[in-house]
Amino acid sequence: MSNVSTNAGEPERLQLLRVLGPAHVWALGVGIVLVGEYMGWNFSVGKGGMIAGLVACWVAGLLYTCVAMIDSEVTSTVAAAGGQYAQAKHIVGPLMAFNVGLYLVMAYTMLEAANAITVGFLLDSVAGMLGHTGLNQQPFIVLAIMFLAWLNYRGVLATLTFNLAIVAIAFTAIVVLFLAIQFGVSAVPLDFSAVTEEPLPYGWVGIVAALHFGLWYYLGIEGTCQAAEEVRSPARSLPYGTMAGIMTLLIAATMTWYMCSGLIPWEYLGQAGTPLFDAARVTGSTWLMVLLFIGTMFATLASANGCINDASRAWFSMGRDRYLPSWFGAVHPVYRTPYRSIVFLVPIALIFALGAPLDQVVTFSILSGLLGYTFMTFNMVMFRRKWPLDTIKRGYVHPFHPLPTIILLILCSTAFFAVFLGYGTQLIAMMCFYIIASLWFHYRRYQFVRRGDQFTMPWPKPLGY
Amino acid sequence: MDVWNILEYLAWALSIMFGALLLLDLVRIDTTYDNALLTSSREGEIEATQERHTI
Q1: Using a CB-CB distance cutoff of 8 angstroms, which residues of chain A are in contact with residue B14?
Q2: pLDDT at A459
Q3: What are the TM regions of this chain, as residue ranges (chain B) (predicted)?
Q4: A107-119, pLDDT tens digit by residue?
């Protein structure tokens, strides 16, 4: 068998395929996130007005720049599938790793479900515009999940090359809309009078409330490190792909706020389902409308595609370490994908996509993401303390440590408060779920873990041990 | 029945097809290959062969 690895005296092993480059890493990270530019972010404008929307855009951008910098350093050193799960396992400990693994799977599976719901909503909108009412969205929601799961099952190179193509088109659509507006294609001129007339309609608390939805611009960029075991050169590709990704998103987010806030009155923008598509409709240009509809659809599919990829890698890694039944740690002998994990997560995504309201699904996804970002702060501090810069080689060293960590912790705390203001019950329910899962892992599951096998990095002993 | 109704049926049919492809291949692989081989993947292989964490 040609696609297995063997060492002298050892049985043959199946491994994930190392075929990806920096562009695929970019496509994975931006692909998961770019849908946030097409929808969702605009609720921040509804919560606090235009200025609050812009502040949320840039404050969340700062938060995620810290995430990208911290993540690039750690993941270029802990190059394993599972991303932050593998980082937590090596740097903090098994219980933290189990929780981080669950955060990842929950965040990505919920986001996948939310994207599938959005595909159904978009097609329903188009059907309505073309005169068909009462479209049954369910078959399209199911098809989006089944097709993308099948694509992921068949191989990571095809999956992320597909993502690269559709993300490039979706990003280009935003740039084209921006340029078209600048060159006077729009029938309606940009109007920012609300910035001076109603700068903060709900006061300063509106800015805090807006921050919750400002996260949508960038939520998921940290997903790049799930590809660590499938990139040809993790130490180079992961930092390149991740940092290029966050730069792309900062540009796209600012352009999006500028165009939508200038074209759509803030009272309407704060409630719009598809703000970029609506901005294209306001321009009165049919070809811009078609382009932005395609962009919206592609961004949604790219996000769901990346989420399936990332959730399955995290689940697979936990199965491989026996944090979950080892059955999930299987690799397909031909396609070299974590095929059992991919198939197992399909019905879970379908249950949420068909049975839960969109805002609840997205809130649970954001909460799991926020817990993961909070983990990154003390993970980074422990990483630098246990293995200082002169003890192990990193693919990337982020500057100004510990400043990004402190900023990230402050912003995470603020974002938790913002979420608590709107979704306190869900926040408490989520915390209870993770506490119960932790108790199960500690008292029932950890006995099955091969403790020595789970630490694989050939690092020197940590400082102080 | 308009084109959207036809698309609904088509989407159901394609969903069933992709689901069947996934499940049939999973069963085929699980019955053809030894489970020990399928779950033989180990984390960190690249660390031992390519990446060097020494300065």
Answers
A1: 143, 146-147
A2: 85
A3: 6-27
A4: 999 999 999 999 9
